[in-house]
């Protein structure tokens, strides 16, 4: 576990491991865990008690993968095709996949033997300065505690919102399901039109979007926010994640409102308040919640292209969100700015980002783009669908967003396999890649340098 | 001019400049030269003698920009809308833009005061070891000499091919125009359907594709090829460019043939020989010639997606082609491979590529992708056209390819301006960016390092 993801936490100090190291590499453990969960989930969903109509093996695997990877793409309608038991299985898979992944990632980072020393080195010093199994357990507990508290708040608020409309029993079950689905950025809904009926509902829009924004912002940011009282005491990483979340959401909100304002199929016929709510929800959901209150296939192409970018970016590191992550995106922007200003160091908020970090961000982005491209190429060869629908579906799957322009239900068998692969790669890929980048193997012979023409 | 593009030539040794340096930076000189050529060209095309029908200012600017940047996208038909004089102006603009750019780039590299020491340090040692104005002139002469010899061969062969069909006068004029357009990777044609009538013509297919492949492979590769007799004596850069050209062309050839074999609108009804010729031509033209013998809007979406990638990659550095360039693409592939193998040094052909080089390749690619994305977003907001057509047009313009699915003629006025901007950015951008990357300005204060979470 040595050298495991040092870039995940600022200013890590390495110490000798005081406990035994695992024989398997963390990415292998993670992949095995996910595979096990998916197979178990698929088997449970195949039980007659889980469904109201026949479900084939591929559909079960697709649904389980979508739940465990917290994607939310569905080949059958969650609300009608599954019984309450089936929906419970899906909720459990989401919770295990989303929370489990976040916990694993945080624990893996901590078990480096590192002290989480954010800029002011005050956070969690005692709890995290050693790596005994007991300590690992403590960290995992902290992650779970945070999550449970936030989820309980969500369940309470949503039950209060829905109990008049649905009655207490249904309201509380919906509240549980939607809270789990939202906090874990899964985007599974109990109706086939996601949250479209609530496009103008302030409570639902705000509670659900708050849940997935908090879930998608990352554990280290949350813990930093709780411990520090003032903005200037927050770590650079925390400030960057918060600032970029705010800026991206506001820009997306304004752009989507402008782009859809005259679209009669979406915003044109809504009141200003409802327009604002719908624009807000569609602005924040692509990174990477996956609920929607508008129909993406009815939105303008420009809104869809903007959504493609937002989906590709995703949320914070060590969170329930996927994508290349906010930190990666910010580094790319600042590196580009530095290049264009002919500076050889990349800076932000009066800090220098080491070149190795920039290289990692670029590598991660390039691999993601290569994968998206390859997937789009294969899907265009397999599916009869407009290019935009295919590109949207591929990016949505790789970033485990779950938004769709309607292609998911019409996918061919090989097409479904491609999407399953993308969901798994999208959820496990960045962490695995970061591990590879963080733990290089030295090769034995070193060749002489050469120069290849660039540009 | 110090530090000008050291990565353009392998193993550059820096020497003090023996002659005066320019007061303007090379990118500025290049931009001013291009702007001057475009304005001059547009004015000439606006002369009544140049056209057979009215031409507005934007159309003239678009045509001149397309010619000078050797793109080949057209808003009016070159063969019918322009008189012989107008076509001569266009050919002159292509020659000046294509050859001028290549000469400038090579001279700029040489005027560093560098000896072109390819691996064996044998090439052009005497001619290029100093940087007096006389030497610069000599280098420019060498570039021009190469180009003229190749173009004369092209003109001769095409005249022989066409004189029975068209008569000597027309055949020789067509030969001149198509040779200039092909060698400079411009893709301008004298008929609105490009070279579609010659889809099954071996001579035309092979002569034209040879011309643009040679033109797009780059001057340093050509000079290395001429001086060295054996494969192993060629520089790593030369071998990489040749190998990647061969591999990409063969893969694209096979994929396109497979993807179009059953498409009745393209290959299905052709003989095997004609299928091979058409697949070959469409495989090699996207990087970045721009002629076509099949209709891209009739080809499968998968073929179009493959073409998007090929267009984005482009040809060799210091050539008449654009795109991110073969060297950049190969570095990206090898860097990804190294990351996935958890190696911290990127190697190919038993040589190590320095990390700084990798970073430049990634930066250049990222900036290109950001520009393509921004352009697609703006164009989807401006134009009523399928997403694939818009993406195709944007990439084609930025890589100065000139292929189109038919959108060019239907572009709105702001849409035409976007495409004009992309063509100029695509031609000048990579060289300018490479200059920025190669000549960093040190900032005065250096901030402390920080770590931002990635992945
Ligand atoms: K999701
Ligand atoms: K071209």
From TrEMBL, chains A, B:
Membrane topology, from the record: Multi-pass membrane protein
Stretch forming the signal peptide: none
Keywords: Cell membrane, Ion transport, Membrane, Potassium, Potassium transport, Transmembrane, Transmembrane helix, Transport
Transmembrane segments: 21-45, 57-76, 88-112, 143-163, 198-219, 240-259, 308-340, 361-382, 413-438
Subcellular location: Cell membrane
InterPro entries: Cat_transpt (IPR003445), TrkH (IPR004772)
Pfam family, one: TrkH
CC annotations in GO: plasma membrane
Record flagged with keyword Iron-sulfur: no
GO molecular function: potassium:chloride symporter activity
NCBIfam families: 2a38
Name the UniProt record assigns to this protein: Trk system potassium uptake protein TrkH
């Amino acid at each position: 576990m040595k050298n495991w993801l040092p870039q995940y936490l600022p200013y890590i100090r390495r110490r000798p491991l005081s406990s035994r190291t695992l024989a398997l590499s963390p990415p292998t453990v993670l992949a095995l865990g996910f595979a096990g969960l998916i197979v178990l989930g698929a088997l449970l969903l195949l039980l007659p008690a889980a469904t109201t109509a026949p479900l084939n093996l591929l559909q079960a695997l697709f649904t389980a993968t979508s739940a465990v990877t917290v994607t939310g793409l569905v080949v059958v309608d969650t609300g009608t095709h599954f019984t309450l038991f089936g929906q419970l299985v899906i909720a459990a898979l989401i919770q295990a996949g989303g929370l489990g992944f976040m916990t694993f990632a945080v624990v893996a980072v901590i078990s480096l033997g590192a002290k989480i020393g954010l800029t002011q080195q005050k956070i969690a010093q005692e709890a995290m300065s050693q790596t005994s199994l007991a300590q690992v357990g403590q960290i995992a507990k902290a992650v779970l505690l945070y999550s449970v508290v936030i989820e309980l708040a969500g369940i309470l608020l949503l039950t209060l919102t829905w109990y008049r409309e649905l009655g207490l029993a249904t309201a509380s079950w919906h509240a549980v399901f939607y809270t789990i689905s939202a906090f874990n950025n899964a985007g599974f809904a109990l109706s086939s039109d996601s949250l479209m009926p609530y496009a103008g509902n302030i409570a639902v829009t705000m509670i659900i979007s708050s849940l997935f924004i908090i879930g998608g912002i990352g554990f280290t940011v949350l813990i930093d926010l709780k411990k520090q009282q003032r903005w200037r005491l927050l770590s650079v990483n925390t400030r960057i994640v918060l600032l970029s979340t705010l800026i991206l959401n506001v820009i997306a909100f304004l752009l989507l409102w402008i782009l859809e304002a005259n679209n009669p199929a979406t915003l044109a016929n809504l009141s200003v308040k409802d327009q604002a709510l719908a624009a807000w929800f569609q602005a924040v959901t692509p990174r990477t919640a996956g609920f929607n209150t508008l129909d993406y296939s009815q939105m303008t192409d420009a809104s869809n292209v903007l959504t493609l970018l937002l989906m590709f970016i995703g949320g914070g590191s060590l969170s329930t969100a996927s994508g290349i992550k906010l930190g990666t995106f910010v580094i790319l922007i600042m590196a580009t700015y530095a290049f264009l200003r002919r500076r050889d160091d990349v800076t932000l908020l009066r800090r220098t980002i080491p070149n190795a970090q920039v290289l990692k961000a670029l590598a991660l982005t390039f691999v993601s783009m290569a994968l998206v491209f390859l997937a789009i190429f294969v899907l265009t060869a397999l599916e009869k669908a407009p290019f935009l629908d295919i590109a949207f579906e591929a990016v949505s799957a790789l970033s485990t967003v779950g938004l769709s322009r309607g292609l998911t239900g019409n996918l061919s068998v090989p097409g479904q396999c491609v999407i399953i692969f993308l969901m798994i790669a999208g959820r496990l890929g960045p962490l695995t890649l970061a591990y590879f980048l963080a733990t290089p193997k030295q090769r034995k012979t070193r060749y002489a340098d050469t120069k290849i023409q660039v540009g």
